[in-house]
């Protein structure tokens, strides 16, 4: 008889009903799904293990998405037509069946139930549909599709889809037909079966066996083999551990069945990565940006002795036939020196090598070489494969060699065995690049930072850390924490603030009922997919108010945003949505063919900050978009004119992808410095939500999704109302009569994502900042800024030598950081005796300003040791941090500061400098500084400056060949040069001076080791740690010495 499908539907329906129960308070203590699953398996346990029950068919029905070898070629539209014909529905009932298309409505499965409920099928006893019948019918349907696996296609029959499905739908109740429909669509949403619990309830060894052999059929065969067949399916916990150990000794991988992959952790920072590693010895392997493959070799099956499986587990040997000969040559198959006698299983990455560029080509190049079941998808706009391009294989693990089950071996032995098994063929076959780090040594973290910095600078995808003594799976390690065999992935975009971000416009939406159903936590949704559009005529729109013309470049869905962002887009979007032909005022070019159809257009497009893992060319496109995009923030204070245009996005992408060969050492040093700072910052207790800061002191607000930013007109470091490097959108809007001042005087709502742990940028940024002003975001910015800044200086000036953080800059010739002495009018000079080391013509200021160098007026604290060859001697320097912070707020400092930086004094803003000599102790220094600063601000009187900035520099800047009284330190350009070489961080508080807000600013909650985090209070200013070196230009007050006029007074006067 088999297992009745109605019994399985009882489980699905009970789990669906639990959606309401889960909303109750008591559900937080105990998961109602666990109770339902346990009860269902206890009721039907005997039937499940009955000899008449096809367990493979049952598991295939429970987890339809796991059957990647079956492709039915039936989506909602085609399946709805098929079901209508199977049930012989009339026109009115067909219309009701089509209601799944309605935005905010139900899915196709629910529509099928609603239609069939009007006339339920009468099912005779003994005629019930079984899971075996359903599995056979779906196997027959899948055999017709060329995208199904080879084994499924070999069973192809002449069955028609309607002939296969009609007997099933006509013998099912309306409820059961709903679940069959969802099974065919390979999504049981809104039900998600807890896989581990269900598999353990079936048999306690099944989850482990599926790791070992990623196939239901192979796992069930192992359950029937000796001695596992004699084990009870649900033993006591103590006995289960002993039986599991016995079973592992008898496991032997089957060549031709994909082996599962271990789980991995994501490192959210260098420090987080080191914490997960502990004191282990690990292998740090480069992560290649290609297609994963698992290679199975059985020399007994000639000539087809090689099988290649994709990450999903599908046999894709035919699609990757071009790399098979390279595999044979590398493994020396058929030659006497071949190390394989009978069988072998290896893991690797398929890449494209370019002889022309001498490196691995971009990921999108692969689709020109690898087909999908014989069809090349998304290549219509790609150039054909070039003679200098070829497929390449990079091996990184060996899992089986003849009778040696390498899965149980530690990674270091597997790596040695892999080296012995394969032969490197330059540009064709290689082994993954590797570094071995012992984290019991104190320099391990520094070495990891240097390796990671190199990878980021050279645009590698990332790294994978594997324990040298860990087996492939944790189940072989005996680690009770189940973490022994887990890998750690370290990628730039996993670390908050280091990914690539761009402001983009959302111009339209579409509704997909299956996606809406999967969002259990969201309220009624009108759209589940959103279309990203870029202006193609931005200049014309800004200059002559032309009709905006958009080009759709991508879509984002529930996987690219939080539930809260999804709700915000739906709630606000309903006020701006209109039909495609209802006069929205835009011209929208036809979207790429691979994108779904747009349902509505937003008359007022959203502007969102998108984070991605670099840039790529999507399928069928000639342009670049963000890779793996996700929304970080929704900007309600920006219009689509402020978002990146199509040309700007392509320029950003090209710059981000370019590897600055001539400046690779500089960029590596910059990233190393950033990681060192991030280590220190991680000691703080940051707000888990995306945060913003205002020009006034603010308190931390937790659990909210909308924050208010009181924005006062932003001024840049040069006193202008908008930053010089921003796009022309601001000026164009001003010329068209847009009042930014009026807009910024009102509270601006900022919607932020509380669900992510990343640290966001401030929302007080000006308009038009397309790629966030943050060196952590796109590594290409360092190179661009360096080139742009270097080009502004005299070509005869000696360039400053880039200084890596791991090196000691012992050179005393630091004049590169100082500008040549400016030409000063005769009446502005006085008789100051120049030093012999740096002959200067010192300007004489007007009587109203007795100008002095900031190094002689603001407090300077030297942490640790003074460089031996320091040329700049700091007078009256504070002995410790406490004295330094006290000096910052003293009246004497305020009076002296008026001579060098009157604008800062007028704003009641204090300045200070710290010279740090040890980069490895920088995190400790920042932690101590913010804690002591918090205590000072809490205890200080009202006379303490209400805002201020403390700049942390490398103490090597004291080696500059001049004196502390050099008036060139009054110039902003001097400090800009110093910042490029010596800047570490800026600690600021209060809102007296506008910050260069960026995603590299960290709102810090000072941490007390004994008492925990120091909570914010209305009387305490927010403390921020920023890494934008342009902040340092605040120390230099003047833009020119000729004439000596205060630039800010000119602007404000």
Automatic annotation (TrEMBL):
It comes from the Eukaryota. Residues 729-742 have a biased composition (Polar residues). GO terms for molecular function: ATP binding; DNA binding; DNA ligase (ATP) activity. One of its GO terms (cellular component) is DNA ligase IV complex. One of its GO terms (biological process) is nucleotide-excision repair, DNA gap filling. Gene3D superfamilies: DNA ligase, ATP-dependent, N-terminal domain (1.10.3260.10), DNA ligase/mRNA capping enzyme (3.30.470.30), Nucleic acid-binding proteins (2.40.50.140). PANTHER family: ATP DEPENDENT DNA LIGASE DOMAIN PROTEIN (AFU_ORTHOLOGUE AFUA_5G02430), DNA LIGASE 4. This is Putative ATP-dependent DNA ligase. Residues 688-853 are annotated as: Disordered. Belongs to the ATP-dependent DNA ligase family. It holds the Pfam family DNA_ligase_A_N. It comes from Aspergillus terreus. Residues 712-728, 764-775, 788-800 have a biased composition (Basic and acidic residues). The keyword Ligase applies. The keyword Ubl conjugation does not apply. Residues 694-708, 753-763 have a biased composition (Low complexity). InterPro entries: DNA_ligase_ATP-dep_cent, DNA_ligase_ATP-dep_N, DNA_ligase_N_sf, LIG4, NA-bd_OB-fold. Keywords: ATP-binding, Ligase, Nucleotide-binding, Nucleus.
